[in-house]
Amino acid sequence: MQDRPKQALSVGFVAKRCGIKVSTLHFYETKGLINSWRNHGNQRRYHPDVLRRVSVIKAAQKMGISLAEIKAAFAKLPNQRTPNKTDWEALSQQWRDILNQRIKQLENLRDSLTGCIGCGCLSMKSCPLYNPDDQLASEGQGPVILNRNNQSS
Fold this sequence. Notes:
This protein is mainly α. The protein has helices at 11-18, 22-30, 50-62, 67-75, 85-112, 127-130, 144-151, and strands at 9-10, 37-38, 44-46.
């Protein structure tokens, strides 16, 4: 691998170091997640802290955190600063809570797959037992029982 530049990192260096494509860097930039500038030769350059920023983005994406959620978290940092250790601890705790909610929702979905979900279809043999005359309609739209289970998180 080439030596790490002291001040400005090239697109190719950042992409290689982070294990992503150059087009991914450009995509992150268009989404406002990272920033670059142009040098005198009109080549895109990055500050060294972009390596940590991209690593945070990749880690968050692996956890299922959307780019919009990542951008919102970054926006809370002063002066678009790259997350430091304290920031990462706060972000990871916030995202841990989101993940725990998603895990609970997925577990509820898994456990509800074979039973009535309260959709109001009245076509299954069990609907007259679980939801006679679509009584669950008064609780809301869609799969009421499934939604009820997911809201208890």
